[in-house]
Write a structure and sequence with these properties.
Number of strands: 0
Protein name: High frequency lysogenization protein HflD homolog
Shape: globular
CATH topology: YcfC-like
Keywords: Cell membrane, Cytoplasm, Membrane
Helix content: 55-70%
Membrane topology: Peripheral membrane protein
Radius of gyration: 16 Å
CATH class: Mainly Alpha
Family: Belongs to the HflD family.
Number of domains: 1
Low-confidence stretches: none
Order of helices and strands: HHHHHHHHHHH
Subcellular location: Cytoplasm; Cell membrane
Number of helices: 11
Length: about 210
């Protein structure tokens, strides 16, 4: 992340904070789709997700996503589709809602939460040594996802180019993205986000998105 990026104070509005956290979930979903189809990924969006996941003790809410809402722009744009303002990519929406469902399963499984917390603490030390987006760190995030979230009966089946999905480091990168989606899903829940609100409080989400544009 660019160290000169100014820190924009996070909004006090619970709805706006929920929107930012939810944007992280759908940014992860969007990048999983992009990786699976093209093998490439937007660097700023990718770095934001990975750095948020390895920083297990952020200094502030805004520090989680690098201090500027535009670091979550891909996810915010996807939310605009969710509230009906833009054309939605059904695959990305499916990944995003699946991540929220898996987050809820994880949240109620204290043993897995503890195990994942320990793994992420170790990975944070690795990130401090190699740098957050180093392939060793990405591989460790992917392994942590595989050993925890992937053991649920409900799984995310990623669609894409089979040859790309089997290429070097691609499974790890996809799983690291999914782990980031879980991380932002937990943040969304901590900020008061709930699935039913996405159905019954769309106006509040629209207003929150307007405040972040």
């Amino acid at each position: 992340m660019n160290p000169t990026t100014p820190i924009h104070r996070a909004p006090d509005s619970p709805a706006a904070r929920q929107a930012l956290a939810l944007a992280g979930v759908f940014q992860a979903a969007s990048l999983v789709d992009e990786l699976a189809r093209t093998g490439q990924v937007d660097p700023r969006a990718w770095e934001t997700l990975i750095e948020a996941t390895v920083d297990t003790n952020p200094a502030s809410f805004e520090a989680i996503y690098g201090g500027h809402p535009n670091n979550l722009r891909r996810g915010l744009d996807t939310l605009e589709a969710l509230v009906g303002r833009k054309q939605a990519n059904p695959v990305v929406l499916r990944y995003g809602f699946s991540l929220l469902m898996l987050m809820n399963k994880l949240r109620t499984n204290t043993g897995m939460m503890d195990s994942l917390g320990q793994k992420l603490t170790r990975i944070q030390g690795q990130a401090e040594h190699f740098g957050p987006t180093h392939e060793n760190v990405v591989a460790s995030l992917g392994e942590a996802y595989q050993e925890t979230i992937s053991t649920f009966k409900t799984r995310i089946v990623v669609q894409g180019d089979p040859s790309l999905l089997q290429s070097r480091m691609m499974p790890e990168r996809v799983r690291a993205c999914l782990m980031a989606g879980i991380r932002f899903g937990l943040l969304w829940h901590q900020q008061g986000g709930r699935r039913w609100k996405l159905v019954f409080q769309r106006k509040a989400l629209r207003r929150a998105l307007d405040s972040l544009n």
